[in-house]
């Protein structure tokens, strides 16, 4: 004979009631333990997320308030001067919070001083470079002129948050610091590879490749300098000095790039008009030549010899 039914059917009504209560109690305890465990996991996760947020915010704050640091070597004037042989004029580094020291002209050569403030994402700067680089190269080669380039960053807003202008200015400072005699070629390469406005621009790795293509020395030092943005604070300070320098403001009281001075006189012609720029340089050169000649008195003629007395 088989025995059917569960064991609960053999329990009395009170026993079944107690068993149900016990089962409910166990379920409640299990539920409470589960809730406590979930609450602990949730709180732990929130703590980890909070700590991560704090770490990120701290990193952002630290980077944004990075104390001022010295500028690059060979940019004591906030720019680098290129002379005969396309070699850079060696200078000390500009110390943090110090005022830049203007490059003194060399009276021995009488060379014209061409100074340019540029943003490497500025399309008008590229237009000036494309139109005038050949004649400027000729002037520098012949010793007629020196070229002083001031990299600044006023177009970060045009690079979709990548801060390309600032990173390009920093990369230029890195080259000036570690491989100054390669600066002229790197300057040209940045224009040859200039990204369009309203794009993210070139990556750090792409900038590093361009430095190597330009034949820089100390390539690994320059790569680290670009990655670390070693001269980030200098680039920001140099930009602020440029845009607030009243001598560099245009007739409307604004600063723009390129700003071009030839012996201290602003070139206001079209950036892509090579003839107009050549005439401006020639006029400056002619004025300097005339001034030098007028400031050097002509030697007085020797008096004629007296006639010998008659015997």
Can you lay out the helices and strands and say which pair or pack?
Blueprint: H1 13-64, E1 80-82, E2 112-118, H2 123-141, E3 145-151, H3 164-178, H4 183-192, H5 204-213, H6 219-228, H7 232-243, E4 259-262, E5 265-266, H8 274-295
Parallel strand pairs: 2-3
Antiparallel strand pairs: 1-3, 2-4, 4-5
Helix pairs in contact: 3-4, 3-5, 3-6, 3-7, 5-6
Protein model, in words:
The chain has helices spanning about 15-65, 125-140, 165-180, 185-190, 205-215, 220-230, 230-245, 275-295, and strands spanning about 80, 110-120, 145-150, 260, 265. With about 300 residues, it is α+β, with helices and mostly antiparallel strands. It has two domains: about 20-65; about 80-285, 3-Layer(aba) Sandwich (Glutaredoxin), CATH 3.40.30. Strands 1-3-2-4-5 form a five-stranded mixed β-sheet, sandwiched between helices. Helix 3 (about 165-180) packs antiparallel against helix 4 and helix 3 (about 165-180) packs across helix 7. The protein is rod-shaped.
Average pLDDT, to the nearest integer? 86
Low-confidence stretches: 1-6, 296-311
The CATH topology of the largest domain is: Glutaredoxin
What is the N-to-C succession of helices and strands? HEEHEHHHHHEEH
What name goes with the CATH superfamily of the largest domain?
A: Glutaredoxin
Strand fraction: 5-15%
Supply Rg. 36 Å
Q: How many individual β-strands?
A: 5
Helix/sheet category = alpha+beta
Which descriptors apply to this entry?
311 residues, alpha+beta, Glutaredoxin, 2 domains, 5-stranded mixed beta sheet, 48% helix
């Amino acid at each position: 004979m088989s025995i059917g039914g569960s064991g609960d059917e053999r329990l009395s009504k009170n026993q079944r009631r107690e068993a149900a209560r016990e089962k409910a109690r166990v379920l409640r305890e299990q539920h409470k333990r589960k809730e406590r465990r979930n609450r602990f996991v949730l709180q732990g996760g929130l703590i980890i997320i909070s700590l991560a947020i704090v770490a990120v915010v701290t990193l952002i704050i630290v980077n944004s308030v990075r104390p001022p640091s010295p500028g690059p070597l060979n940019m004591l004037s906030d720019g680098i001067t290129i002379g005969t042989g396309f070699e850079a004029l060696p200078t000390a580094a500009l110390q943090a919070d110090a005022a830049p020291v203007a490059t003194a002209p060399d009276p021995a050569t009488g060379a014209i001083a061409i100074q340019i403030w540029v943003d490497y994402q500025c399309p008008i700067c590229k237009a000036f470079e494309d139109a005038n680089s050949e004649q400027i190269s000729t002037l520098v080669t012949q010793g007629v002129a020196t070229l002083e380039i001031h990299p600044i960053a006023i177009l970060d807003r045009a690079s979709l948050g990548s801060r390309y202008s600032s990173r390009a200015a920093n990369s230029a400072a890195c080259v000036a610091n570690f491989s100054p005699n390669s600066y002229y070629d790197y300057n040209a390469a940045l224009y040859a590879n200039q990204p369009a406005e309203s794009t993210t621009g070139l990556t750090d790795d792409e900038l590093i490749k361009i430095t190597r293509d330009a034949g820089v020395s100390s390539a690994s030092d320059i790569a680290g300098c670009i990655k670390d943005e070693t001269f980030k604070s200098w680039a920001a300070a140099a930009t602020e000095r440029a845009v607030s320098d009243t001598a560099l403001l245009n007739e409307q009281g604004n600063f723009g790039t390129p700003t071009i001075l030839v012996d201290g006189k602003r070139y206001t012609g079209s950036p892509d008009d090579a003839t107009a720029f050549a005439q401006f340089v020639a006029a400056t050169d002619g004025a300097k030549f005339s001034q030098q000649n007028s400031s050097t008195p002509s030697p007085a003629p020797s008096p004629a010899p007296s006639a010998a007395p008659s015997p």
